[in-house]
Amino acid sequence: SLCSLGRLKNGPSGNTRSAETGPFFGLPRLQKLPSNLQKGENCLKRAEKSLDFWRSPSHPKEPVDLKVPFTSLQAVKVLLESHQIDYSILIEDVQALLDEESREMQGNRQREYSNRNFNYGAYHNLDTIYRAMDDIVMDHPQIVSKLQIGQTYEKRPMFVLKFSTGGNRRPAIWIDAGIHAREWVTQATALWTAKKIASDFGKDPSVTALLNKMDIFLLVVANPDGYAYSHTNNRMWRKTRSRIPGSRCVGVDPNRNWNAGFGGPGASNDPCSDSYRGPSANSEVEVRSMVDFVKRHGNVKAFISIHSYSQFLMYPYGYKCTKPKDAEELDRVGKSAADDLTSLYGTRYRVGPICSVIYQASGGSIDWSYDYGIKYSFAFELRDTGRHGFLLPANQIIPTAQETWLGLKKIMEHVRDHPY
Question: pLDDT for 275-286, tens place per residue?
Answer without folding.
Answer: 999 999 999 999
